[in-house]
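User: I'll paste a sequence; please echo it back and then give the predicted structure.

Assistant: Echoing your sequence first, then the prediction.
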Amino acid sequence: MSSWISRATESRNAQLITTAAVSGFVVATAILGFQKARRMTRIADLKASIPEVGDAHHAQRLTEYGAASNVFAPSKEDERSVELAARARKGDYDDALILEQLARNRVFLTDPGLAKLREAFVVVVGCGGVGSHATAALARAGCSKLRLIDFDQLTLSSLNRHAVATLADVGTPKVHCLRKRLEQIAPWTHFECWNDLFSEQSAQAQLADLNGQKPDFVIDAIDNIDSKVALLAYCYNNDIKVISSMGAGCKSDPTRIFIGDISASTDDPLSKSTRRKLRLRGVKDGIPVVFSTERPGPGKAELQPLAEDEFAKGSIGELGVLPDFRVRILPVVGTMPAIFGLAVANFVILSIAGYPQEPLPSKSRDKMYDGILGALQGAEERLARALYVDDAKSLKIPITQDDVGYLVEEVYNGRSIVSGLSTRLVLARWNKPTQNFVDQNTPGQKHSLLKMNELVLMTKEEAAKHEKEILKGDKKLEEVYDAETIERVHKMMQEEERYERFR
């Protein structure tokens, strides 16, 4: 080996190659070193050019919540509360003191019930007027594991209904405001804050277990319908207990607030839209909700329209904080979200502790739906036989019991489109078919091509007249019904077409 090296070093070509390689390495090292030195010098110059942030500078340091640090400096009490909460979460807090603070709950729920509540893990989605009061009540009651989810920040207008926010919290995330303030009340509580928007795509992560513990309850305090439906459907399909708050806006009568199954909720636009979209996902009951039966009326608050100058700015969708979020002002008297939130928290506390309660039951009318479905199938057979097919016996229709329930409850509100009566109801075609609607391509089977948006709800007497004069007869709709009724049906059918995209 040594002799080979000796011969190689004596070779002129080898010497030239070695010299070139060493020279290249030295040059490359020098270039890279120069570039690094120049880059470091530029970074140092850039950093030096940035002025220090001080009282005399227009910029201000930010707190962990994203607010200016010197607008509202933390008080000594705030600092002590943060330190106490940090120690308490590590176990440095006498359990006897906790039980003393929870003494009234303890004697009400009993020791086993309170123990369940103290070990419970609850997720609150939406930390505004309703969610903040629900969270505060849970923390005060002893629930020690709370996950808070909300993307929004507090504004001045939030202070008329938020449970714990102060002027010092304006501009800070709602989830951190709740944690900061409630740590001063129940320092042993473990808060997990998600300053994030809830969505169907993130549901699995946001509602995931906490250290192996599945959520004992999820509280829906969202005011956006699509997000609300996504949350409720996810919980329903994954067997997670959930309670939903319906609309507190434009409501003023606390005596009309109820807790019951979502199928029993009435007289609330948010509740109706939520029920309707959930039914399209196959969820018709089994979700408890807090809702108000208060009806709108003369002199009562209602959703405020946008000013004309706002319409002139362009697309209305661009005026919202996020796509599909409301842009109009919803009047809210601050007491109503608080009552909704406390009602939600009360239901969760009693449910976890095993305390007896009797919410309104599900409004199950399956027997009635079956009757309407049978009557509809009979009507289709008669119409097919009269117009197109001699033998229409055993004609199948592509409508299910759930479809009937959806049309009766959510589209027509359980009332005849003609007279508004709510007894002896049936579904009937509105327009006379212009072509054969019976599919006979499958051997030994005939079925109707009937669609849901072709049906209206009537009383049996109205349907019999409608079938005789319009569906089987020669009269036109305008000859039987007034313009107002025809327009009402037209609007209902248009609305149903919009909801078809969720099916």
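The two ends are 81 Å apart (CA to CA). The mean pLDDT is 83.
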